[in-house]
């Protein structure tokens, strides 16, 4: 199993990060840690250097943060990303967030920054890992204009069934599902008709834990795999094998 999206570089793990990673190693094949900005990306790379061949880096700029960044910081992020383009497994998380951000001007800035990262992914032929909350259809229409992005991943997919069907028309487009599957009826209903060939698993740790009091961690991706197997009436080994192979193919790990 692979947790394709988490943030174990965050300060929430400052006291027991080694133990969290040890628990993950007991159950998982790999973990992908996603950066959310320039400083975050640097920290992610340091963590991955410490745990080579188990933790892999993805460099991005979270949309809610990106809308407030300066041109200088965005340029630094682009430069740092390109300098490390052969050391990362994806560009992300990047995208747009219409859940938290309602202001039209800020949404437009998010889109401009999102496009700048899409263009890098397209030019350098690197997988694109997207945070596109409440704007999945709009994001899909944008990325469909680019032909050289090898793989597109909708992180923590929460879009409509219609959008999901359109995504599945593209062999290289995937939807990632988190531990939210264990308690969210919306996500449970959504995944019923999504082919395993288009599914990845994640935790988005430290977020999306089973209760608000808990801190999520990568090993809990096992719970997501188990829930997919229940919903789709497949044995857990099949779900594990297919989703893990999807991740290995996309991220080359």
Would you write up a description of this structure?
It is a single chain. The protein has helices spanning 17-27, 38-50, 63-66, 71-83, 104-124, 136-143, 161-168, 185-191, 221-231, 236-251; strands at residues 2-6, 30-34, 55-59, 90-97, 128-133, 152-154, 173-177, 199-201. The protein is an alpha/beta fold. An eight-stranded parallel sheet has the order 1-2-3-4-5-6-7-8, sandwiched between helices. Strand 4 (90-97), helix 5 and strand 5 (128-133) form a beta-alpha-beta unit. Helix 9 crosses helix 10 (236-251). The longest helix has 21 residues, at 104-124. The model has no long low-confidence stretch (mean pLDDT 96).
């Amino acid at each position: 199993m692979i947790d394709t999206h988490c943030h174990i570089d965050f300060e929430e793990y400052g006291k027991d990060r080694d133990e969290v990673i040890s628990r993950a190693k007991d159950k998982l094949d790999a973990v992908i840690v996603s950066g959310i900005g320039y400083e975050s990306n640097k920290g992610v790379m340091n963590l991955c250097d410490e745990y080579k061949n188990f933790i892999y880096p993805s460099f991005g700029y979270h949309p809610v943060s990106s809308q407030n960044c300066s041109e200088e910081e965005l340029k630094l992020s682009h430069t740092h990303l390109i300098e490390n383009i052969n050391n990362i497994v994806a560009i992300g998380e990047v995208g747009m967030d219409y859940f938290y951000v309602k202001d039209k001007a800020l949404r437009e800035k998010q889109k401009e920054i999102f496009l700048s990262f899409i263009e890098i992914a397209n030019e350098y032929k690197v997988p694109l890992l997207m945070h596109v909350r409440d704007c999945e259809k709009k994001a899909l229409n944008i990325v469909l204009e680019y032909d050289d992005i090898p793989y597109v991943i909708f992180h923590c997919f929460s879009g409509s069934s219609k959008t999901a069907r359109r995504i599945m028309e593209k062999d290289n487009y995937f939807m990632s599902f988190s531990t939210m599957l264990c308690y969210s009826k919306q996500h449970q209903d959504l995944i019923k008709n999504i082919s395993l060939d288009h599914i990845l698993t994640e935790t988005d740790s430290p977020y999306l834990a089973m209760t608000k009091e808990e801190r999520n961690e990568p090993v809990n991706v096992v719970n997501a795999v188990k829930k997919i197997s229940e919903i789709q009436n497949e044995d857990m080994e099949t779900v594990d094998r297919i989703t893990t192979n999807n991740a290995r193919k996309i991220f080359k790990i």
